[in-house]
Write a structure and sequence with these properties.
Elements: H1 3-8, E1 13-16, E2 24-31, E3 35-40, E4 44-49, E5 56-57, H2 82-88, E6 93-96, E7 104-111, E8 115-120, E9 123-128, E10 134-137, H3 140-155, H4 158-185
Antiparallel strand pairs: 1-2, 1-5, 2-3, 3-4, 4-10, 6-7, 6-10, 7-8, 8-9
């Protein structure tokens, strides 16, 4: 996709890719030579790298359903290239590659010409910059799910917490015994 084509679709609701986990419907907010900015209902502002886009669809007859409000001016990044967008998200919670097995979510630490580094749970992940198809700040849904699970945990009775803790200890002991038995056989 080139910038001239994308500029003809500015402020229109489009579908990026035809289907699959990366497909999104949203309003095209900005376009540059190697990336564009899409406002989506679910993920908010998403920065897409154009070299990975297979298709862009526009329903010229009826339009596509879209009800997100336009963000305030300056609430999303306008950068000359995709690496500058990625660099400006350092030390933030980000979501990389929307769906499927290659989706990552965590705090982005390092950005170089060749790779990015993301801290996700107990892992340090280095992802080749070439394979970053899209990126956004972490979703609001993630924090809502976390708050809901914390509320659920605080509502558990002390007996349930003890039972769950004991169950986990028993499972760990069984796993340790199995591992020790295998090691002795070697």
């Amino acid at each position: 996709m080139n910038k001239d084509l994308l500029l003809t679709l500015m402020n229109k609701v489009i579908r990026v890719d035809r289907g699959g986990p990366e497909s999104r419907i949203g309003k095209l907010m900005a376009a540059e030579d190697d990336h564009f900015v899409l406002l989506t209902e679910k993920d908010g502002i998403v920065y897409y790298r154009t070299q990975h886009i297979k298709s862009i669809s526009l329903n010229s007859r009826d339009g596509m359903e879209f009800s997100a409000e336009d963000p305030a001016a300056g609430s999303y990044l306008l950068a000359p290239d995709f690496k500058a967008v990625v660099s400006s998200l350092r030390h933030h919670w980000v979501k990389v590659n929307r769906g499927g097995p290659e989706m990552l979510e965590g705090i982005m630490d390092e950005v170089s010409d060749d790779y990015i580094t993301i801290f996700s749970k107990e892992e340090v992940i280095r992802l080749a910059m070439y394979h970053v198809r899209n990126i956004s700040l972490g979703t609001k849904e993630k924090t809502n799910e976390k708050n809901n699970s914390e509320a659920k945990d605080s509502n558990e009775s002390p007996n349930n917490k003890t039972e769950n803790s004991n169950k986990q200890k028993n499972e760990n002991a069984v796993n340790d015994r199995g591992r020790n038995a295998r090691n002795r056989r070697r």
